[in-house]
Amino acid sequence: MHYLTLINQNLDKQGQGSDNLNMELTFFKYQGAGNDFLMIDNRARVFNGIERELFEQLCHRRFGIGADGLILLQEKEGFDFEMKYYNADGRESTMCGNGGRCVVMFAKQLGIIEASASFLAIDGPHQAIVLEDGNVSLQMGDVSSIGRDNDAYVLNTGSPHYVQQVNDAKGVDVYRNGKAIRNSTNYAAEGINVNFVEVVGDGQLKVRTYERGVEDETYACGTGVTASAIVASLMQGLPEGDYAYSIETLGGQLGVSYNFKDGKASKVWLTGPAKRVFDGKIDFNLA
């Protein structure tokens, strides 16, 4: 079953027609450690990726439903499904780790998968496992390059991240400091996600993240905690090997495991909750 009911079939998908498409959209709201997303079953390909203003409005927390991002689930040959992710500003973006875990649970809800998934995202194929406790483990991409920007680390875990170690994550002005770094000369054009990381114990971190596209602090960032965990061993001067970190975010606990060797991270897995919050219907006109 597809969750889009077309009220008026007069649609020119390139936006060149004179008629509007009146639609009733059934949406689903999911959250992973407080990182929240609107899920839309787009297997009928009603949306074709040019609806930036609509997606931005749906994600708006005052004038829409409210979310950190929007995800289209689509059919893709050779995979269980394809994930298309859009930031709260309506622009298609790079990989979202928490969104990836949530779309796996959405696919399970739709009956597309059972306990495991193979899906395609903008950064390539991903594998995922739905655990017995309801958490989802998502295999992230390998990281082959880690750069430096003064005392911070810069790497791409499906999305670009700036990672800075701090003594007290709770005391950081994430909005002001994160915004300044994201809009600095080095990063203004493409944007970057900014993470502030406190090492609180053996295998334990606190992470707070300013996300581009949302342009604010989010309760959690999957690719951000992944980046933070990968560089945590470097921050502590630890040897190569297998690592597993428990990470406290504003929205809850996440886990990241990986192998680090020759300056590269492989076998990277992100684990945490992915919960359905509610669903509903909204009417709108698509020009």
How would you concisely characterize the structure shown here?
The chain is an alpha+beta fold. It has 4 helices and 18 strands.
Explain what this protein looks like in three dimensions:
This protein has an 18-stranded mixed beta sheet that branches. The longest helix is centred in the C-terminal third of the chain and has 14 residues, at 222-235. Mean pLDDT is 92; it is low at 1-19. It has helices spanning 52-59, 97-109, 174-182, 222-235, and strands at 4-6, 21-32, 35-41, 69-74, 81-87, 116-121, 124-130, 136-139, 146-149, 152-156, 160-165, 193-201, 204-211, 216-218, 241-249, 252-261, 264-272, 275-286. The relative contact order is 0.17. It is an alpha+beta fold and 287 residues long. The protein is globular. Helices cover 15% and strands 44% of the residues. It folds into two domains: 4-130 and 276-286, Diaminopimelate Epimerase, Chain A, domain 1 (Roll), CATH 3.10.310; 146-272, Diaminopimelate Epimerase, Chain A, domain 1, CATH 3.10.310.10.
The overall pLDDT, averaged over residues, is 92
Strand content: 35-45%
CATH architecture of the largest domain: Roll
Radius of gyration: 19 Å
**How many alpha or pi helices?**
4
How many domains is the backbone divided into? Answer: 2
Under CATH at level 1, the class of the largest domain stands as Alpha Beta
The helix fraction, in percent, is 10-25%
Could you please say which CATH topology of the largest domain applies here? Diaminopimelate Epimerase, Chain A, domain 1
Structural class: alpha+beta
